[in-house]
Amino acid sequence: MSAESVLEGLDPEQRAVAEAVKGPVCVLAGAGTGKTRAITHRIAYATLTGVVTPQRVLAVTFTTRAAGELRSRLRQLGAPGVQARTFHAAALRQLHYFWPRVVGGEPPKIVDSKIGLVADAARACRLSLGRTELRDVASEIEWAKVTQNRPEDYPAAVVKASRRPPAEIVDVARVYAMYEQLRRERNLLDFEGMLELTAAVITEHREVANQVREQYRYFVVDEFQDVNPLQKMLLDAWLGDRDDLCVVGDPNQTIYSFTGASPSHLLDFTREHPDAKVVRLVRDYRSTPQVVRLANGVIGQARGARYRLELVAQRENGPEPVFNEYDDEVAEADDAARRARKLIEEGVPAREIAILYRINAQSETYESALAAVGVPYVLRGAERFFERPEVREAVVRLRGAARAGADAETDGMGLIQTVRHVLSGAGFSDRPPEGAGAARARWESLAALAQLAEDMAADDPRAGLPEFVAELEERAAAQHAPPLEGVTLASLHAAKGLEWDAVFLVGLAEGTLPIVYAKTPEQIEEERRLLYVGVTRARVHLNLSWALARSPGGTQARRPSRFLDGLTGKTTTHTPARVDRSKRRPAKGPQPCRVCGRPLTAAVERKLGRCEDCPSELNEEILLALREWRAGVSVEQKVPAYVVFTDATLQAIAEHAPESMEELARIPGVGRVKLDRYGDAVLGLCGH
Fold it and tell me: How many CB atoms lie within 10 A of CB 411?
């Protein structure tokens, strides 16, 4: 590929970035404006014009997936030798290389998760912390470390930053101090310590600094608004007194300040580098003009914003964003699920639909609502796909089969059949198991690998098992999981960097967005930016909603988020939606056990109407018949069995043995849609 061909197809601003081959350069890139395209073409153009050799470039980003995407694009552009890594991966590589020379002895073991060590520290401090509290304290220790606050400095730092610690400030400081003591005694190193130690080695050892700076002379840092003080310290150590640095970021998408990230590094870049070239990318290729207009309206009300970017839509017109108000959260979830199903019926793939909320605790209502209308879903932020035991086992089996070559069993089989044959040894079958438990989750993981093989075979009929294994290994390194068919449920934070054809932004009420504990002007503005991130995830369809009460029948005292003030009338004249109370699922508040009278809190117990350990009148014959019927429906409709009815709902039906549609409708998990679709069949199986 020639240097000039790399510039073809870029818009004027993207081309300006690509041609600015010498630093310092600051790229302010709005959502959907093609920032990855701009910076990869800049690197490729610099290498093809001889400004720098690929091996002297270090491109830094925040996720292994983003780093993998950078490497892939650079290979296609003729710059395969560029190093694209996360801060942590680059630091770990350098630390391992220089450790024998500058430190010596056994290198410390890297701690993948702090929770175990935090638990030991808490016990040593005679504190009893639950799993959630341990996770929150671990996050608090991470914040303290990236902001360079030692245990003795932590109390004052918390007050200064207006943070809400997960426990008493003194207790967190004690656990933090003990955590550091245990970490040193056990020769362990966490991710923050890795960055700090790498920066120290470079700073304190001139020969190390010279070697690192000779190796890397050309730096690009993506998502620069999310850099924390510790990462900035390491970047400065890499750079030394040089300024061949290109930073890319969007101040409108600064949503990680609570982790220690600071937009000041991006906003003050021209103060630190007065001669920097600044390029603004504002042409939005992702979203329709209607979505872009709303996004500009949300961020346009921000207070005290610097470098505010106003997006300019490049796509054709689409539908106006829809605003809906509901009596309660149950009605809000039910309608979102129905609208999602309607989009699927109109041809929008389920994987191109997302429901985004402020906090993870909101997901349960939407999981239930989607299941009630027969729509599969995927929870984002759960265990990483390639770290699942069944996926690791499958990859090992596939790798071994590829090394062995086509044996007697797989010889002559196509890629799809070969992969399915190998996966069968790990428990994969053409027919999914019943239920929604561990067996089902394992099957779905293996099914995703089988589907990936089908996709590869469709793209390249000549592809064989070695190529498929290479694809899996590259995806695993980049944490690029294969797409799972289902509506995505995710928090707004987890959605950053992603996009869908249709997005539902739910729970947009005061106290939820902005969250109730956002008090300071800076915290409020970060909540506004969180909504902006949510809006800009949508390509075409955008629904925004809020509920006036939490539960059906509750006091309707909530009001829409202040961030929507003045915006709803501009984009739609939609009448606030109300859902007929007779069509709602029962409220999820406490209900008494029908056997002992104890309030029921677990979802399974609420479905059964009793405590799990209370005696039941289960009709085993009905339950067996229901399970066999559900398995057949699952295969016929090509949906997971739990989408038809969950195990708990089937058990509740078998216990109640309903005699009419009205009795069946009263069982939690049997919504109006399922009643219409399956009611007659279920009553027939119950003997009516």
Answer: 9
What tokens appear for 163 in the block?
């943070």
Reduced to 3 states, what is the DSSP secondary structure of residue 426?
Answer: coil
Dist. CA 326–CA 552, nearest whole Å? 10
Q: Widest CA span of the chain, in angstroms?
A: 85
Give all strands (DSSP E) within 229-317, no chain letters: 245-249, 277-281, 283-284, 312-313
Nearest to 357 by CA among 136, 534, 577: 534
User: Cα-Cα-Cα-Cα dihedral of 142, 144, 148, 151, to 10°?
Assistant: -120
State residue 581's pLDDT score.
38
Contact 205, 49 (CB under 8 A): no
Long-range pairs for 552-558 at CB < 8 Å and ≥24 separation?
552/327, 552/328, 552/330, 552/331, 552/581, 552/584, 552/587, 553/328, 553/587, 554/328, 556/327, 556/328, 558/509, 558/510, 558/511
Query: Is residue 284 classed as helix, strand or coil in its secondary structure?
Result: strand
**Residues 6 or more apart whose Cβ sits within 8 Å of residue 456:** 415, 463, 467, 468, 471
Closest CA relative to residue 304, chosen from 87, 524, 473, 113: 524
pLDDT of residue 336: 94
Residue entry with tokens 């609570």: 258
DSSP code of residue 548: S
Which contiguous run of DSSP H or E holds residue 84? Answer: strand 83-86
Spatial separation of the C-alpha atoms in residues 91 and 60, rounded to whole Å: 11
* Residue 221 CB-density burial (10 A; 0-12 exposed, 13-18 middle, 19+ buried): buried
Phi and psi at residue 35, to the nearest 5°: -70, -40
Side-chain half-sphere CA neighbours of 200 within 13 A: 9
Phi then psi for residue 255, to 5 deg, are -130, 15
Distant-in-sequence, close-in-space partners of 421: CB < 8 Å, separation ≥ 6: 409, 410, 413
- Decide: 585 and 367 in contact? Cβ < 8 Å: no
Compute the distance between CA of residue 374 and CA of residue 371 in angstroms, rounded to an integer.
5
Side chain identity at 354, as an amino acid letter?
A
Rounded CA-CA distance 374/376 in Å is 7
Positions of the chain with pLDDT under 50: 406-412, 436, 570-590, 600-601
Residue 409 pLDDT: 41
Q: Which residues contact 394 (CB under 8 A, 6 or more apart)?
A: 422, 423, 426, 428, 445, 446, 449
Contact 79, 54 (CB under 8 A): yes
Within 8 A by CB and 6+ apart from 485, the residues are: 349, 350, 351, 376, 378
Report whether 270 contacts 276 (CB < 8 A): yes
- Cα(261)–Cα(231) distance, rounded to whole angstroms? 9
- At 576, is the secondary structure helix, strand, or coil? coil
| Structure token digits, residue 184 | 């040193």
Give the residue from 443, 486, 498, 449 showing the smallest Cα distance to 471.
449
Opening angle at CA 343, ends 340 and 348, nearest 5: 115
Q: Evaluate the CA torsion angle 524, 525, 526, 529 in order and state its sign.
A: positive
Q: What does the DSSP assignment read for 44-76?
A: HHHHHTTSS-GGGEEEEESSHHHHHHHHHHHHH
Residues in Cβ contact with 396 at an 8 Å cutoff, skipping those fewer than 6 apart:
none
Q: Report the run of H or E that residue 425 belongs to, with start and end.
A: none
Q: At what angle do helices 620-637 and 672-685 cross, to 10 degrees?
A: 130
CA 393 from chain centre, in angstroms, equals: 24
What pLDDT, on the 0 to 100 scale, is given for residue 613?
58
